[in-house]
Amino acid sequence: MNTPNELKYAASHEWLSPDGTVGISDFAQDQLGDVVYVELPAVGREVKAGDTVAVVESVKTASDIYAPASGTITAVNEELAGTPELVNSGPYEGGWLFKMDVTEPGDLMDAGAYASANS
Predict the structure, then answer these.
(1) Cα-based distances in Å from 21 to 9, 60, 91, 95
(2) Rounded to two decimals, what is the model's pTM?
């Protein structure tokens, strides 16, 4: 399982980068299987940590995506509309979901704690 050290992780498998980029972990995309559709939040939406903000659909299931922190959605990954499989092939690169201006971090784990919780 790929778990970059510079990211923080929610127990619900979202990651948050220092610049406010959010996606789902390598573990989560592996559990989902092939992603076929991503519903992204509206830019400008204010969210609280734990709010449902997006949906990722795979050939197996649909999963809610939760805000890992409180803040405002500032951008979404438009590329996912045509190529949702980027979530599988690069969950920490091209498969990011949205960016946010974080006002208050949620209850997040470092990479080591997240990896231990999911091994």
Answers:
(1) 12, 26, 11, 11
(2) 0.96
**Position 106 pLDDT exceeds 90:** no
The residue count of the chain comes to 119
From CA 17, how far away is CA 97, in angstroms rounded?
12
Q: How far apart are CA 106 and CA 112, in angstroms?
A: 17
31-57: pLDDT as tens digits: 999 999 999 999 999 999 999 999 999
CB 28 within 8 A of CB 38: no
- Beta-carbon contacts of 79 under 8 Å, excluding residues fewer than 6 positions away, are 86, 94
- 13 contact partners, CB below 8 Å, separation of at least 6: 24, 25, 27, 28, 118
